[in-house]
Each structure stands twice: as C-alpha cells, then as structure tokens.
Sequence to fold (216 residues):
Amino acid sequence: MEDYPWRRKPPSEITEPKLLLAEGNDAYWFCRKACGVFGLTGFQVIDFGGKKELGTKLKTLKEISGFEQNAEVVVVISDADTLASGESDSVQNALKKAKFTAPKKPFEVAEGNPRTAFILFPGLDESGKLIQSGTLEDLCLATIENKTLLECVDSYLSCCKKAGSRIRRLHKHKLHAYLSGRDKFVGMDIAEASRANAWNWNHPRMKPFKDLLTSL
Fold:
C-alpha cells in the first residue's frame, strides 16, 4: 500500500474505470480499505480535498490523462454535515457545472458518460432513509458493538462539559475518545483506524455504502 501522506497530489493518470472522489484524507483511506475488505476491483480513489474544492476537482478531472479512455463511473463521497439536503444540492450543482450528469438523490446512479453517483455519510438508516445530518465519524461509531465502552465515552464527554470544556465537534470527540479507550487503536486518526479494522465492515449500517459500490 502507498505511503500515508497528509496531502496527496492529484493523480497523474486515470487507470481504473470506477472513480471514487473522497472528501479528505480520512475518507480517502476509509474508501481504500473498504474496497479491499469488500473484495472490489476496478476502483481508483481520489482525495478531492475540502467541500469548496469539489467543483474545481471535478472540472480538472476530465483533463487527467486516461480519463476519457478509462472512466466509466464517478462517485462523489462527502459528509452530510448539518443538513443533507443542502449538501445534496451542493454536490449536484458541482457535478452539473463540471458537465457531468447529476443524480436526483444520494445513493442513486445517474446514466451518462460517465455515469455518476454520490454518497453522503453517515448514509442511510436501517429503514433505508437518508440520515439528515452527520459525518463519516458517525457511520464508524454506529458500527461499534461495544456499547458499554461507548457509554463510558458519553460519561467522559459529559464530565468534560461539566468541567467547562467546549465540545464543538461531538462526532470527532466521541470517536477519538473511543479509539483512546482501545489499546490497539490509541493515538490513531480515523484513516489509520480504518486501515487497522477498527470498524465492523459487515454492520448493517455499512450495507448501503457497500451495495452501491458493488453495483457499479
């Protein structure tokens, strides 16, 4: 596997038919690991950076050597953050401005040349409905089966709040507190933890993500 840089340069060549454009370093390594665990081939994962960079990355994607010859499907993978509908609009607009077809909703494939799709983490709930807010961290936390340890994490964060600590990004605080409570994962970020199999890749909450990639 390639080195673990914090910031990767754009690929110099498109070599695979299925392109996953992931939001940031954590999502990049999460997707890389997921493809391996799910036994998927033909995927090339690209870190598009932050949300504001997506439009530019989509426009320049077509200029990369090998895109026209090899690209069959482009999938954008991003966080829903505070409002999934707003992020859906943002991704759809970025795709349209870059002259790609835009799916009507997340986890749907739009026909075109190439085909397109987009995924918003944390994804779909057990009933198949889009979760309206959250991040990749929330998806990873949902797969953790040691609920007792998660209760300890909640108690710890509650204590931190009472002590005057400002918990601004609960999903990140909670995830890193959980990892710190596991000796084999302590000190890891979400990218490293993904590579170390900290999550249950067979959890039902992973299924919509897995099913879409498998269908491509």
In short: The CA atoms of residues 105 and 190 lie 27 Å apart. DSSP finds nine helices and four strands in the chain. Residues 136-195 form one domain.
